[in-house]
């Protein structure tokens, strides 16, 4: 691997967040998902095809000891990839809060890290996330393995001043349907979206756990 190529691949864009706050409402089935998609179609902005892959030690040090998830997300046939670290998540009545850091990583290098997690040592040269994982959580890049993950089809809508993300998440053990909305006023967004769903006769429930937690459990949660 040439030094010039390494320099190109290790160019990282940082976007650090103190707290990510999202409304997460679960839909019961594909029919509800399709009905909501049809209603929101005039407000459609874009559709993303995502692949989410997670990394930890074989004994799950990050998840078990630190309630943290290290993820590589690939967008739209590897046109973009994002490394993220989420920690200390909690969901109460459908409102999710988690500490989050994000960095854009060259997709070619990110794919190398999937097949050879040892290549994270190259990313670490300019990564605040991997430095945090090592310095605060005591996990070196040489300890990381790929746990696998899931695919997600995300429909994005700009509706009444809100950015709505309608997800169809494909796990090996089933499909989960969810609508998300990141907002500084989650309670207000919650009322607006619940009114939209109720007015159109679409059943919903509050999401109780993250997609990563569902992946780790190996089964879809019961719809309540």
Keywords:
alpha+beta; Hypothetical Protein Pfu-838710-001; eight-stranded antiparallel β-barrel; 8 helices; globular
**Rounded average pLDDT:** 93
Helix fraction, binned, reads 25-40%
What general outline do the C-alpha atoms trace? globular
CATH topology: Hypothetical Protein Pfu-838710-001
Strand content: 35-45%
Low-pLDDT sequence parts: 1-12
Order of helices and strands: HEHEHEEEHHHEEEHEH
Structural class: alpha+beta
> What is the tally of beta strands?
9
**Class, according to the CATH hierarchy?**
Mainly Beta
Largest sheet: 8 strands, antiparallel, barrel
Distance between the termini: 52 Å
Order of strands across the main sheet: 1-5-4-3-2-6-7-8
Tally of individual helices:
8
Any idea what the CATH architecture is?
Beta Barrel
Number of domains: 1
CATH superfamily: Hypothetical Protein Pfu-838710-001
């Amino acid at each position: 691997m040439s030094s010039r190529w390494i320099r190109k691949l290790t160019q990282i864009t940082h976007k650090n967040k103190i707290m990510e706050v999202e409304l997460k409402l679960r839909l019961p089935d594909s029919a509800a998902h399709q009905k909501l998609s049809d209603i929101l179609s005039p407000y459609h902005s874009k559709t993303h095809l995502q692949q989410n892959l997670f990394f930890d030690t074989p004994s799950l040090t990050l998840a078990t000891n630190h309630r943290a998830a290290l993820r590589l997300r690939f967008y739209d046939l590897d046109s973009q990839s994002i490394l993220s670290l989420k920690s200390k998540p909690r969901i109460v009545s459908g409102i999710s809060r988690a500490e989050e850091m994000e960095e854009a990583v060259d997709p070619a290098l990110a794919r190398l890290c999937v097949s050879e997690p040892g290549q994270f040592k190259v990313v670490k040269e300019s990564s605040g996330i991997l430095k945090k994982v090592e310095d605060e959580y005591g996990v070196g890049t040489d300890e990381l393995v790929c746990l696998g993950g899931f695919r997600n089809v995300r429909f994005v809508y700009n509706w009444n001043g809100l950015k709505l993300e309608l997800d169809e998440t494909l796990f090996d053990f089933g499909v989960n349907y969810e609508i998300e909305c990141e907002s500084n006023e989650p309670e207000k967004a919650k009322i607006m979206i619940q009114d939209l769903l109720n007015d159109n006769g679409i059943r919903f429930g509050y999401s109780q756990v993250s997609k990563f937690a569902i992946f780790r459990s190996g089964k879809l949660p019961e719809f309540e």
